[in-house]
Structures are given as C-alpha cells and as structure tokens.
Amino acid sequence: MRHLISADQLEREDIERLCDMADKIRENPQKFSKILSGKIVATLFYEPSTRTRLSFESAIMRLGGRIISTENASENSSGKKGETVSDTIRIVQSYADAIVIRHSDENSAENAVKVAEVPIINAGSGKNEHPTQALLDIYTFRSSKGHIDGLSVAMLGDLMYGRTSHSLVKLLGLYDDITIYELSDERLRLPEEYVTLMKSKGVKHVRCGSFDDIPRDVDVFYQTRVQKERMGEQADKLRTFDLTTSIMNKFSDDSIIMHPLPRNDEISIELDEDKRAMFFEQAKNGLYARMALLYEILFLG
Ligand code: CP
Predict the structure, then answer these.
(1) What's the confidence (pLDDT) of residue 235?
(2) Catalytic (active-site) positions
(3) Residue 286 half-sphere exposure toward CB, CA atoms < 13 A
(4) CATH of 7-129+284-300, one of 3.30.1130.10, 3.40.50.1370, 2.60.40.10, 3.40.50.300
C-alpha cells in the first residue's frame, strides 16, 4: 500500500494483516522502535484534532521517526495566504517522506495524491471519510469481541456528516453476517450511497425509531457526536439518542460502547466506569493501528 485515502482500498486480508501487526507492536514495542529511523513525516491538519494528530505523531516517534507539523494549518500554514493544498503538498513532500493530512474538503486527500511523490494518509476528509479511524474501530471490535463476522452494531448520532461512520460501514461490508441498527434523527441518517453499499454487500440494515427497536444482546453501540461545525444552527434542533446508565441497563453486559470521540453529551460521564465502556481503549488502539499502518507504508514500502 502506498497511500491510504479511502476505506475502499482495504480488503479483509489487509485489515487482518494490519490488526495482527498492531498486536505484535503492542506486545513488543521495543522491537519496532527504530524501524522509521531517518524518516520524517509531515502532519498537515487544517481541522482540529486531538486523537488523530497526536496518535500519528506518537506512532511516528515510537517507531523511531521524526515529525514536522502544522497544528492548525488553516491559520498557521500558507493556506491562510491562499495557497492551495496541491501547492502545499508539492512543497512539503520535499521535506518529508510521507504526509498525513486532515482537511474540510471532501476531496482533499485524493487531490493531494494527484500531485504527491510521497505517501499520503487521509486523517479525515470533510464529511466524507476517516479510514484510519475505521481501521482502529475494527481493531477494537476484534480486540474486544474476538471476531468481526456475525457482529451486530447499533450506530447512533450523526451518521450523515460523521465521516467515521462512513468509513466504518465500508469496512464492515467486507465481513459476513453483519447487522447495522441505525438510530438517529431522520436528518442525520446514513447517506443513501451507504445504504446501497450495505445492500450490495449483504449487510442487514435496520432503521430504528427508538432504543426499544435494538435487540438487548446487540454487540456494539457505536455512538457519534453531532458534527455542528458542518451544519450550523440546524444542529440545535436535532434529536439525539444519548447513552446513559438507565438506557444501558436495558442491554446485555456484553454490549460494548464505542465512540470515535470527542464526545459532547451523547455518552453520559456516569458510563465511564461501566465495564462496557470501550471508548478510551478505542482511542488508545489508534496508536497501535496507526503504528501498523506506518510500518506497512513507510517501512515495507
Ligand atoms: N476520532 C477523531 O478523529 O478524533 P480527533 O478529531 O480528536 O482526531
């Protein structure tokens, strides 16, 4: 793999291989601590981030590489002076061996690849995709539940503008006997192209009106934040389906709770101590999943 732009690029065997490598790195990080020695990776984040940027930067450094970074590229890079992303990529690739980019433009990563002579990794492209988040989400399913085939996943919140949901649906479509229960405001439902995709991949898709429509033994709750930054004032009028202790009491002790984070009010903090809460572990898994991806792209080449 040279670039990672979309979850469409990943096949089931790619995911298994990357997850196996993430496990190996987690078990023996010292063994991999110099593999990126001499490599420099640039992180260009035109949108805010805590987990993705810092876990990528930590992953690069833990593999022995170094980083150059624009923490707030829309303000602190020459993008502020009108430079196009394509021009910025043409310049930064002279300074780095790979570029990790997050941008509000849905085509940002694809456009970067068109001019790039170094690997490009999409760290979030508008409301479109977030493939490395989906990779760590699948890694978390595997670590927590032991399998992906046969999983039932309740997807909640903003499935219209939430790019993590889009990439995750694509990856789940690679597995057998998957059921997705969708519970969201009707204005935040998964876009039609993802519904069509699920149908073509044999994913069972159930639109729910309330928590009562989700089976008690659902395997995963995948909660998401309303992407206010993508919809303006409309966001305040939308119905959300927040997870609280009283809601979770209705579900199995084995149903795990995930969230790509950051969260607002959609998972109550009282659930942080619930043994089913997996969202902080999920964020930590991002480090290992991204180390595995960097190993493939930059070390194996
Ligand atoms: N999940 C995720 O993309 O988080 P950040 O916005 O903090 O990177």
Answers:
(1) 80
(2) 51-52, 81, 102, 130
(3) 26
(4) 3.40.50.1370
